[in-house]
Design goal:
Length: 324
């Protein structure tokens, strides 16, 4: 497998070469803008790495990688509207830089563009690639709906939350890896195993993101630290704190979660204090490690040499130990 850096260069070159119509500029400029903001490019990278893992050249799946990257950014555009997020990758979100209606429509066109790219894959694998891509995209939307439903509920369980992040975040990592496997002609068993590996890594990835939202260095994070607390998002950390809090801790949590319109700095300080007292970050890290170990066990079952697996293991470690 080529070095990760070489595959990243292929991705950046391909993204830079994406061609969109010049007009209407208010439709296409936001798309060019969000794709130019960079990001980790993890999902398209997984497509390429999976293709290499199963013995084919990454170029075989570059169209699928572009489809995944454009689709992922489409979800971010609409996510940011729903969350009223001011920043994405340290820059203004599209609905803030332009307006909400523009962001919605540009996002819609991104979904169209993603489908145009997935339709360009090797025709021998087109049906399975389309099925994988569409099932993945539908799962992400289901996860987003559950996430929004949770905002109006006060009885969300941790199991429900884990299923929500499986759909909203993890299926896209699993789907990206399965796409790469399909386009490399991997066996159905191995394609399903790499999907399960990605799904479990995705859950661990999101749990890590929940932790970073509270404990990350603001200079590195690229988003507003504490944004989940400010928005009363039902993350693993909050749900576990609600489960464990007693007495004064419970009263304080209930008070600060009752409304969004409060002294933000004080709210962040008080909720974080309770998290620290209950060692919520430690508990969340243990849960994250559970899914990581489950993923690695599944990865061991894939019928590929350890040498070929090394690159994906390096990337997995980077994902779970990142500080931004």
């Amino acid at each position: 497998m080529p070095p990760i850096e070489e595959l990243q260069q292929l991705l950046e070159k391909s993204i830079k070469n994406l061609a969109f119509p010049a007009a209407p500029n208010r439709l296409y400029d936001p798309i060019k803008y969000i794709l130019s903001l960079g990001g980790k490019r993890i999902r398209p990278l997984l497509v390429l790495m999976s293709t290499e893992l199963f013995g084919k050249d990454a170029a075989e799946s570059i169209h699928a990688a572009m489809a995944v990257e454009i689709f992922h950014n489409f979800t971010l555009v609409h996510d940011d509207i729903m969350d009223n997020a001011p920043l994405r990758r340290g820059k203004e979100t599209i609905h803030k830089k332009w307006d909400v209606n523009t962001a919605i429509l540009s996002g819609d066109v991104m979904m169209v563009e993603a489908n145009k790219h997935i339709a360009k894959v090797n025709t021998s694998y087109l049906k399975e690639a389309l099925d994988t891509f569409n099932n993945t995209a539908q799962g992400v939307c289901e996860g987003q709906q559950l996430d929004m439903d949770f905002e109006a509920r006060n009885d969300v369980s941790i199991d429900e939350y884990l299923n929500m992040i499986r759909l909203k975040t993890a299926v896209l990592l699993g789907g990206a890896l399965k796409l790469g496997a399909v386009l490399a002609g991997a066996s159905k068993q191995d394609a399903n195993l790499i999907y399960q590996f990605g799904e479990n890594i995705g859950i661990a990835f999101q749990l890590h993101d929940d932790i970073l939202d509270v404990y990350a260095d603001p200079k590195k994070f690229g988003k507003q630290v504490g944004g989940d607390i400010i928005a009363n998002k039902k993350t693993y950390l909050l749900l576990k704190a609600i489960e464990l809090a007693k007495g004064e801790q419970k009263e304080t949590l209930d008070k600060w979660m009752a409304t969004k319109y409060v002294d933000i700095k004080e709210k962040l300080a008080q909720v974080k204090r309770i998290y620290d007292e209950l060692e919520i970050d430690k508990i969340a890290k243990e849960q994250m490690d559970f899914y990581l170990q489950k993923a690695l066990h599944i990865f061991d079952e894939i019928n590929v040499s350890d040498d070929r697996k090394a690159g994906l293991l390096i990337l997995t470690n980077q994902l779970i130990t990142r500080d931004y």
